[in-house]
C-alpha cells in the first residue's frame, strides 16, 4: 500500500467480510468507481476468459518445458480459478494421466459449493464465497482443504529452511502438495 501511495495512487479499502455481490465488496466498489471515473477499466479476473487462457498458453507451457512434458500431479490453490483451470486444461492435453489437485481454504466454498459453509480465514489469494466464472471445477480431480495454522506454519518453514519468503497461500499449496505426494504412486 505504501508503494502505491508513494506513486500517487488513492487506496480505497473495502471490508474483507463483504460478500462478492455486496456493493461494499472489492468488486462492488470497483464497478462503482468504473462508472464514476473517466477512462477507468476493470480487467475482472473473475469472468475474463483471458485469465485462464494466459495460464493455458504461457504458464502451463513453462511447466511442461521445465519438466520435459512429464508431470504426474499439479497442486495449485484456487482463487479466481484462472491459474488452475488454464494450466489444468493444457496438462490434461499433454499429460492425460496428470492429476489436478485444487487447494481451497476451510471457510471457502470453491471445493464443495453445496456443502461448504462460508467462514473467516486469514490466508489471502485463494478461496471465495462464490464460484468465479473462469473456474472450471470439472478439470480438478481432487480438492484438498487447507487451514490457516498449517498454511502459515508451512510458509514460515519455507522461509527458514528454503529461503523462500512467501505468504499463506503458498504455504497452503506446499502443505497440501506434501500431503498429496504421499498418495502418489
From TrEMBL:
Swiss-Prot/TrEMBL GO biological process terms: cysteine biosynthetic process
InterPro entries tied to this protein: Cys_Synth/Cystath_Beta-Synth, TrpB-like_PALP, TrpB-like_PALP_sf
Signal peptide span: none
Keyword Secreted tagged: no
Sequence intervals crossing the membrane: none
Keywords noted in UniProt: Pyridoxal phosphate
Pfam annotation, one family: PALP
UniProt domain Tryptophan synthase beta chain-like PALP: residue ranges: 4-184
Needed cofactors: pyridoxal 5'-phosphate
PANTHER family per record: CYSTATHIONINE BETA-SYNTHASE
Entry's family note: Belongs to the cysteine synthase/cystathionine beta-synthase family.
Protein name as annotated: Tryptophan synthase beta chain-like PALP domain-containing protein
Lineage: Eukaryota, Metazoa, Ecdysozoa, Nematoda, Chromadorea
Amino acid at each position: 500500500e505504501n508503494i502505491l501511495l508513494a506513486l500517487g495512487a488513492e487506496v480505497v479499502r473495502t471490508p474483507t467480510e463483504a460478500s462478492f455481490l455486496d456493493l461494499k465488496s472489492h468488486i462492488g466498489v470497483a464497478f462503482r468507481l468504473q462508472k464514476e471515473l473517466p477512462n477507468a477499466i476493470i480487467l475482472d479476473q473473475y469472468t475474463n476468459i483471458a485469465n485462464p487462457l494466459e495460464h493455458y498458453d504461457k504458464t502451463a507451457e513453462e511447466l511442461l518445458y521445465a519438466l520435459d512434458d512429464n508431470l504426474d500431479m499439479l497442486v495449485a490453490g484456487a482463487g479466481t480459478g484462472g491459474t488452475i483451470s488454464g494450466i489444468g486444461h493444457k496438462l490434461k492435453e499433454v499429460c492425460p494421466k496428470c492429476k489436478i489437485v485444487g487447494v481451497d481454504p476451510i471457510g471457502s466454498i470453491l471445493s464443495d459449493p453445496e456443502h461448504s459453509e462460508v467462514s473467516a480465514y486469514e490466508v489471502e489469494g485463494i478461496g471465495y464465497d462464490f464460484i468465479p466464472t473462469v473456474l472450471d471445477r470439472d478439470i480438478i480431480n481432487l480438492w484438498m482443504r487447507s487451514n490457516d495454522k498449517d498454511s502459515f506454519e508451512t510458509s514460515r518453514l519455507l522461509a527458514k529452511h528454503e529461503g523462500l519468503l512467501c505468504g499463506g497461500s503458498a504455504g497452503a499449496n506446499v502443505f497440501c502438495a506434501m500431503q498429496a505426494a504421499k498418495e502418489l504412486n
